C-alpha cells in the first residue's frame, strides 16, 4: 500500500486552536489546585492531581462530542471541527495522566502487578454497586489511546477511511464506559445530588444534540427513487453558483454542483473522514469538503494529483430548467461530461 | 448574501470573519464551562478529614515492641502512653523488620528490650501509626529494659457495624481512604499483610476502631479481602488491648458472621470463603 500523505504545517489557525486548548487546560488546573489549597487544605496532592485530570478529561470529552452536531447545526463552528483531533489528543493526555497516576497510586508497590491488580483486586463483577469501576476506565483509556495514536493522516491513509472512521467512532463506546466509570466510581464517594445531576445533564446534552441533528438529516434525506431511469432532482435555480444541492438516490446522498455554467454530480461522502461534500464549495475549480478541505474534481470525482482519493460520479440531464439524475452511480473516479446550462 | 458565501478551509492561513467569530464565541463558552466545573466542584465535593502523613521526614520512636494484636511499638507521644502500630513501605506489613529484630536479639525475648525505630509518622483522630520506610534499616538501637505489660480486658460478644479499611491509608497516607473508590487499594494493602481494621462511623466521622483477627488472635487478611471497602456487620468476641480494640472472629463461620449492610438493611453475605 502506498503512503503519500502530505502533512499540513502548523498554520496560524492550528496555532490559535492549540493556544485555546492550552489556556483552557491551564485555567482549569490553576483554579482546581488553588481552590483546593484554600477550601480543602486537608486534601492530599495525589487526590487533587487525580481528580483534576479526571474531571478535566471528562468535561473536555463532552465538549469534543458536541462539536460535531454543533457544526452540523451552524457552519460557523466548522472552524472548531477542523482541528478537533488536537482537542481529542489533548483530552487523551489528560485522561492518561489521570489513569496512569491512579494505577500507580492505588495499585503499585504491592504484591501484584499493577495492571493485573486493576482487574483482579475487586472481584465483584456480579454486583452493580460494588462493580470494579476502574476496569471500565482502563478499557476506555485503551480506546482513547488507539484513537490518539491513529489520529494522524498517516493512519487514515494506511487503514483506509472506513476502518479509520470505524475505529474513531469507538469514542462513543469510550464515552459510555467513562460514564459508567464515573457513576460507579467517583460518584459513589460523593453525597451531593448536584454531581449526579450534572453528569446526567451532560449525557442528555450529548445524546440530545446527536439525536436532534440525526433526525434533521433523516428529514432532509427524501429518497428520489431507485429507478434505473433518470429521476427528477431539483431545478437549476435551486442550486447556488459554486455550491451544491444534496439529493438522495438509491440509498446514497449525492451532491449536484453548479459551477461555470455547468452541472456535475458526485457521491456526497468525502473519502477523508466522511464529510458532506454537498455542503462544500467549488474552490479553484475543485469541490472542497467543508470539514477538512479535501478536494475533488467535479467532472470525475478525483482528487487532483498527487492525491488519490476519488468518489463515485453520476449522470445528469437537463430538461428545460429541471435537473434529472440517473440513480445508478459510475465507479469512483469515472469521468462524466458536465451538463451545460443554457444550451 | 456575502455572509452566506463565506467558506472555511482549514489548511489556508486565514479564515473569514464568520468563522473567527464562531471560534471566539466557542472558546469563550468552553473556557467559562471549564472554569465553572473546576470552581463548582470545590463546593460540592465531600470535605476531607484532617489526617497526616509526614512524607519525607523520618521520626525516631523508642518503646517496647508488642506483637498482639499487631506488630507495634508501645511508646509515649505527647506525654501519653500509646501503641503505635507499624507497617512496611508500600502496600506491605512490617513483619520482615520484626523478624530482623528477633534475629538480632539471638532468641532473647523481644519484650525484654527497649527498641528505637525510625520511620514516617501517620496520624489521624488521635491515633498514630508508623511506616518503617527504610525496612531493616529502621532499627536504630535496642537495649535491655524492664517488661511493660499489655493491659488486655474482655469486652464480651459484640455485633459491630463498620467498614473494613486498610489502616495505613486510612490514618493518613491517602485522603480519602475508605469506601468504593479506595476498595482496590485497600485490598492490595491488606493482601500485602497490613492488618484489617473495622472503622466505626458516626455520621460522616469515623470514631472507633477494631482490629479483626481470628479466635486465637491470628491474621485473617485473606479471608476478608472481598468484604473490604464495604459496610459490614461483624459479630465476634471483643477485647481492649491497651489503647486499641480487637474483634476476634470465628473464621469457620465467617460467612455467617459478616453481614453486608446497605442502608442499614442487613443481608446475609453468601460469599464463599
Strand content of chain A: 5-15%
Share of residues in helices of chain B: 10-25%
Summed up, the helix count of chain A is 10
Share of residues in strands of chain B? 35-45%
Domain unit count of chain A = 2
- Globular, elongated, flat, extended or rod-shaped: what is the shape of chain B? elongated
Oligomer: heterodimer
Strand line-up in the sheet with most strands of chain B: 2-3-4-6-5
Q: Any idea what the radius of gyration of chain A is?
A: 25 Å
Extract low-pLDDT stretches of chain B: 262-273
Largest pleated sheet of chain A: 5 strands, antiparallel
Can you walk through the features of this model?
The complex is a heterodimer of chains A (343) and B (273). With 343 residues, chain A is α+β, with helices and mostly antiparallel strands. Chain A has two domains: 209 residues, no CATH class; 110 residues, Rieske Iron-sulfur Protein (3-layer Sandwich). Chain A has ten helices and eleven strands. In chain A, strands 2, 3, 4, 8 and 11 form a five-stranded antiparallel beta sheet that branches. In chain A, strand 5 and strand 6 form a beta hairpin. The longest helix of chain A has 29 residues. Chain A is elongated and about 80 Å long. The two termini of chain A are 45 Å apart. The model of chain A has no long low-confidence stretch (mean pLDDT 92). Chain B has 273 residues and is α+β, with helices and mostly antiparallel strands. In chain B, 21% of the residues lie in helices and 38% in strands. Chain B is built from five helices and 14 strands. In chain B, the strands form two sheets. Chain B has a five-stranded mixed barrel with strand order 2-3-4-6-5. Chain B starts with 16 loop residues before the first helix and ends in a 5-residue tail after the last strand. The chains are: A alpha+beta (343), B alpha+beta (273). At the A-B interface, helix 1, helix 2, helix 3 and helix 4 of A face helix 1 and helix 4 of B.
Amino acid at each position: 500500500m502506498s503512503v503519500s500523505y502530505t502533512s499540513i504545517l502548523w498554520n496560524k489557525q492550528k496555532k490559535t486552536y492549540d493556544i485555546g486548548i492550552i489556556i483552557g487546560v491551564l485555567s482549569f488546573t490553576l483554579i482546581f489546585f488553588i481552590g483546593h489549597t484554600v477550601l480543602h487544605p486537608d486534601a492530599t496532592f495525589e487526590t487533587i492531581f487525580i481528580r483534576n485530570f479526571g474531571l478535566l478529561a471528562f468535561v473536555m470529552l463532552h465538549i469534543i462530542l458536541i462539536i460535531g452536531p454543533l457544526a452540523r447545526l451552524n457552519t460557523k463552528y466548522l472552524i472548531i471541527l477542523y482541528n478537533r483531533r488536537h482537542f481529542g489528543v489533548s483530552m487523551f493526555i489528560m485522561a492518561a495522566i489521570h489513569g496512569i497516576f491512579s494505577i500507580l497510586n492505588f495499585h503499585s508497590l504491592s504484591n501484584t502487578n499493577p495492571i493485573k491488580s486493576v482487574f483482579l483486586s475487586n472481584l465483584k463483577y456480579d454486583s452493580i454497586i460494588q462493580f470494579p469501576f476502574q476496569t471500565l476506565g482502563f478499557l476506555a483509556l485503551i480506546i482513547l489511546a488507539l484513537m490518539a495514536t491513529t489520529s494522524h493522516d498517516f493512519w487514515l491513509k494506511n487503514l483506509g477511511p472506513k476502518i479509520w472512521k470505524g475505529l474513531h467512532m469507538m469514542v462513543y463506546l469510550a464515552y459510555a464506559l467513562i460514564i459508567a466509570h464515573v457513576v460507579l466510581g467517583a460518584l459513589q464517594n460523593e453525597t451531593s445530588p448536584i454531581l449526579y445531576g450534572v453528569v446526567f445533564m451532560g449525557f442528555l446534552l450529548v445524546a440530545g444534540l446527536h439525536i436532534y441533528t440525526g433526525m434533521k438529516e433523516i428529514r432532509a434525506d427524501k429518497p428520489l427513487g431507485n429507478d434505473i431511469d433518470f429521476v427528477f432532482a431539483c431545478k437549476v435555480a435551486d442550486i447556488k453558483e459554486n455550491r451544491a444541492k444534496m439529493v438522495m438516490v438509491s440509498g446514497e446522498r449525492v451532491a449536484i454542483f453548479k459551477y461555470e455554467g455547468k452541472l456535475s454530480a458526485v457521491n456526497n461522502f468525502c473519502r477523508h473522514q466522511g464529510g458532506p461534500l454537498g455542503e462544500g464549495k467549488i474552490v479553484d475549480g475543485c469541490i472542497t469538503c467543508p470539514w477538512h478541505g479535501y478536494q475533488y474534481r467535479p467532472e470525475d470525482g478525483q482528487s487532483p494529483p498527487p492525491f488519490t482519493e476519488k468518489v463515485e460520479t453520476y449522470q445528469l440531464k437537463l430538461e428545460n430548467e429541471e435537473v434529472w439524475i440517473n440513480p445508478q452511480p459510475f465507479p469512483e473516479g469515472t469521468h462524466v461530461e458536465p451538463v451545460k446550462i443554457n444550451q | 448574501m456575502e455572509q452566506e458565501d463565506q467558506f472555511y478551509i482549514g489548511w489556508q492561513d486565514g479564515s473569514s470573519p464568520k468563522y473567527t467569530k464562531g471560534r471566539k464565541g466557542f472558546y469563550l463558552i468552553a473556557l467559562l464551562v471549564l472554569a465553572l466545573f473546576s470552581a463548582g466542584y470545590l463546593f460540592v465535593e465531600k470535605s476531607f478529614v484532617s489526617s497526616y502523613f509526614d512524607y519525607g521526614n523520618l521520626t525516631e520512636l523508642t518503646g517496647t515492641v508488642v506483637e498482639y494484636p499487631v506488630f507495634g511499638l508501645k511508646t509515649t507521644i505527647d506525654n501519653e502512653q500509646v501503641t503505635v502500630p507499624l507497617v512496611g513501605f508500600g502496600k506491605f506489613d512490617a513483619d520482615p523488620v520484626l523478624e530482623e529484630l528477633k534475629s538480632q536479639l539471638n532468641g532473647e525475648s523481644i519484650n525484654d528490650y527497649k527498641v528505637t525505630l525510625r520511620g514516617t509518622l501517620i496520624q489521624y483522630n488521635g491515633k498514630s501509626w508508623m511506616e518503617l520506610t527504610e525496612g531493616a534499616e529502621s532499627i536504630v538501637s535496642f537495649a535491655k529494659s524492664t517488661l511493660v505489660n499489655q493491659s488486655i480486658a474482655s469486652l464480651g460478644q459484640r455485633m459491630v457495624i463498620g467498614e473494613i479499611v486498610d489502616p495505613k491509608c486510612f490514618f493518613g497516607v491517602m485522603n480519602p481512604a475508605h469506601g468504593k473508590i479506595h476498595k482496590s487499594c485497600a485490598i492490595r494493602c491488606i493482601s500485602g499483610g497490613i492488618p484489617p481494621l473495622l472503622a466505626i462511623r458516626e455520621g460522616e466521622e469515623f470514631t472507633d476502631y477494631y482490629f479483626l483477627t481470628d479466635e486465637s488472635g491470628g491474621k485473617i487478611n485473606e479471608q476478608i479481602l472481598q468484604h473490604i471497602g464495604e459496610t459490614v456487620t461483624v459479630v465476634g468476641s471483643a477485647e481492649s488491648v491497651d489503647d486499641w480494640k480487637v474483634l476476634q472472629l470465628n473464621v469457620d463461620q465467617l460467612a455467617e458472621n459478616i453481614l453486608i449492610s446497605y442502608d442499614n438493611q442487613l443481608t446475609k453475605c453468601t460469599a464463599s470463603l
